[in-house]
Amino acid sequence: MKSYINYTKFLLVWVFLVIIAGGVVRMTQSGMGCPDWPKCFGNWVPPTNASQLPADYEKYLKQQDIDHTFNAYHTWIEYINRLLGAVLGLWIIIHVFWSYRKFFKTNRSIFWWSFVLLLLTGFQGWLGKKVVDANLAVVKITTHMVVALFIAAIPVYILHKLQGKLKVENRLLKFLSIVALLLLVVQIAFGTDVREQIDEISKQLNYTQRELWIPRLNIWFKVHRSFSWVVAACLALIAFLSYQKKQLQQHAFINVGLVAVLILLGITMMYANIPAIVQPMHLLATSVLAISLFSFRLKLK
Q1: What span, in angstroms and rounded, lies between the C-alpha atoms of 5 and 197?
Q2: pLDDT-derived band of residue 267, with 50, 70 and 90 as boundaries?
Q3: What is the pTM of this model?
Q4: CA 49, CA 146: separation in Å to the nearest integer?
Q5: Among the listed residues 160, 186, 185, the one whose alpha carbon sits nearest the alpha carbon of residue 295
Q6: CA distances (Å), 75 to each of 145, 149, 276, 280, in order?
Q7: 21 in Cβ contact with 81 (< 8 Å)
Q8: How far apart are CA 53 and CA 56, in angstroms?
Q9: Could you state, in order of their start, the residue ranges of all structural domains in the chain?
Q10: High-pLDDT (> 90) share of the chain, %
């Protein structure tokens, strides 16, 4: 059992690694570094310089929305992102077979959740193709991110079912944790709108003049900025009410720490003209907070 639990934790870490890789792709504007899918410039291993491009490479380059000449830097960043996703799929296939052998007769729901994890990962791969086909359409990118969060949530749920720790009965905390999750979903929706605006503005400015990006945002940026304090206040209240409960205390304060990190990163982006390195950090912190809050909710009756 311990080996299976550790492997499930390993899967969860790998999911976050893939999320980070996706953030780096966006940070470097490498989303169309491989303009076709599942291959890259028609090959399974992409070229490292222009001399290795296929004879008909122009049909791939004309699809690019970012760089109309071959850019090995963009190509390999996107290729590594895809490779990490493919390896995650292999790890999950192993997890499904392991779940079948270990739990199909004794705890069948574990197997089915593992199987759903595989289906979601396959859907995510298909969605990745649609993102490329749509030349990085912002709505599809956002859906891609939401699916990644669902993929991360399933290993957490499996771990919760297996570790079987006694739940804490507290109706108020249960209610507040649900409210906090809903608030976070709303905040992510606001952030998604801001991110889509940034994508359009940065594209119009040829990914330069970062000092002009934030001033061109509409009212939803201010809403997103202000709403972060609502989420923080809710999590602070949960931490206060969890102070005397040993099973919840540490987890509640971790959530507060994560939202504090998010606010700090948001302030950094606002006053430092959206440094590229901060973007994947903000994405990762948001993902970790969402999954951590989900895990906290699972501890409550």
Answers
A1: 41
A2: very high
A3: 0.84
A4: 34
A5: 160
A6: 21, 25, 18, 18
A7: yes
A8: 8
A9: 1-164, 167-301
A10: 42
Q: Is 199 exposed, middle or buried (CB count within 10 Å of its CB: 0-12, 13-18, 19+)?
A: middle
Pair of tokens at residue 104: 């199909």
CATH number of 167-301: 1.20.120
The pLDDT tens digits for 125-135 are 777 766 665 55
Tell whether the model's pLDDT for residue 165 goes beyond 80: no
pLDDT tens track for 41-58: 888 888 888 778 777 777
